[in-house]
Amino acid sequence: MNLNQTMWYQAVVFFVLAWFTMKFVWPPLIGAIDDRRKKIADGLSAADQGQAAMKEAEKKVQLELAGAREEGLKQVANAEKRGQLIVEEAKNAANAEAARIIAAAQAEAANQVTKAREELRDQVAALAVKGAEQILKREVNAAAHADLLNQLKTEL
């Protein structure tokens, strides 16, 4: 065997093997590597988009929480206002009821004063008749002197 000839065979086999590898083996490997690279890039892009979406969702949540807090504070303020209105209405109703009760009591007192005056007039008239009887030492007929007694009542 000749060393030059062996070298030439080895060179030819090397170039055939290189050509075969470049023609049939290398393209599927490069395609698989490119597909893998694309999947990784898409995954990283999706992760970035997911993080951005998560940040945006967190902002929305914060806005919603702030809105809910504000709405809650408004409802509490409205409830306090309603409570104050109810208290004011109750006070007004109580004042009106007190005024009505006072007016009724004053009317009742006025009626009692009028009754007492009438009774007092009757008693004074009876005492006047008794006094007149004693002075005159005779009996005074109340039925006969009714006009006189009524006139005396009106004067008292």
TrEMBL record:
SUPFAM superfamilies tied to this protein: F1F0 ATP synthase subunit B, membrane domain (SSF81573)
Subcellular location: Cell membrane; Endomembrane system
Single Gene Ontology MF annotation: proton-transporting ATP synthase activity, rotational mechanism
Single GO cellular component term: proton-transporting ATP synthase complex
Record keyword Flavoprotein present: no
One Pfam entry name: ATP-synt_B
Record-annotated membrane-spanning stretches: 6-29
InterPro entries: ATP_synth_B-like_membr_sf, ATP_synth_b/b'su_bac/chlpt, ATP_synth_F0_bsu_bac, ATP_synthase_B_chain
Recorded coiled-coil stretches: 103-130
Bilayer topology: Single-pass membrane protein
Protein keywords: ATP synthesis, Cell membrane, CF(0), Coiled coil, Hydrogen ion transport, Ion transport, Membrane, Transmembrane, Transmembrane helix, Transport
Subunit-level organization: F-type ATPases have 2 components, F(1) - the catalytic core - and F(0) - the membrane proton channel. F(1) has five subunits: alpha(3), beta(3), gamma(1), delta(1), epsilon(1). F(0) has four main subunits: a(1), b(2) and c(10-14). The alpha and beta chains form an alternating ring which encloses part of the gamma chain. F(1) is attached to F(0) by a central stalk formed by the gamma and epsilon chains, while a peripheral stalk is formed by the delta and b chains.
Family in the record: Belongs to the ATPase B chain family.
Protein role: Component of the F(0) channel, it forms part of the peripheral stalk, linking F(1) to F(0). The b'-subunit is a diverged and duplicated form of b found in plants and photosynthetic bacteria.
HAMAP family associated with the record: ATP_synth_b_bprime
PANTHER family in UniProt: ATP SYNTHASE SUBUNIT B, ATP SYNTHASE SUBUNIT B', CHLOROPLASTIC
Name of the protein in its database record: ATP synthase subunit b
